[in-house]
Amino acid sequence: xxxxxNTHPVALITGGAQRIGAAIAEQLHHVGYNTxxxxxxxxxxxxxxxxxxxxxxxxxxxxxSADLNDITAIxxxxxxxxxxxxxxxxxxxxxxAFYPTPIGSAxxxxxxxxxxSNMKAPFFLAQALAPELKKQSxxxxxxxxxYAEKPLIKHTIYxxxxxxxxxxxxxLALELAPAVRVNGIAPGAILWPTTQDSxxxxxxxxILADIPLQRTGDTNDIARTVLFLLRDAPYITGQIFNVxxxxxxxx
Length: 251
Description:
The chain has helices at 19-30, 43-56, 71-85, 108-136, 156-176, 200-209, 219-231, and strands spanning 10-13, 34-39, 61-65, 90-93, 139-143, 181-187, 240-243. Helix content is 45%, strand content 14%. α1 links the parallel β1 and β2. α3 (71-85) runs parallel beside α4 (108-136) and α4 (108-136) runs parallel beside α5. It has a single domain, classed as NAD(P)-binding Rossmann-like Domain (Rossmann fold, 3-Layer(aba) Sandwich), CATH 3.40.50. The radius of gyration is 18 Å and the shape is globular. The protein is built from seven helices and seven strands; from the N terminus they run βαβαβαβαβαβααβ. The longest helix has 29 residues, at 108-136. By secondary structure, the chain is α/β, with parallel strands linked by helices. It has a seven-stranded parallel β-sheet with strand order 3-2-1-4-5-6-7, sandwiched between helices.
């Protein structure tokens, strides 16, 4: 445990090194949270982000690596995160594997990978941290997806996993009430996938055409929603907030 006097609230953000996770870490740090940034392979950006945050405010950020497919690693991540400042006030389950699994080509490894990051890890992290979050009157926020409700073709396992993530949010909200609030955020077109296939441009054009606000969102749209749910929503629990420019209205 870090023995220095440090009374800032602490947030554990899975997949916090890049993209949406990094934006959440930046936003929460800006308003006074200490941040525990989880990563799996993204060590370099995780370390760079932690160094940057600690330059702004000493002893305010730390990062730990963990494979969310591994239950032992999940438990170790929980223990290290809690031990560093002696408390956890918020758990942000952001880490997520996302890739197509067309019927006929999906493997058991695909199943394990997509279910682990989107359902297994959020559940076991929440279970492990529940006593601490109850003690702190804390919050859990799960990053879901609009595809949990309306499926994306060739992504059956991913959509199933995110649908489970939504039910996890609702179930935890009941089970952990009244001490812990649990909510979810379902992003729409915030960032395009890092891997693109041959007709990605056409797909992106169609997606944009279906968004009433006629533009993609920004990672800060998700980060600000996280902050709202943590700080300004004391009577909201068990809800999923679509942050999608109205795209879900078009289905």
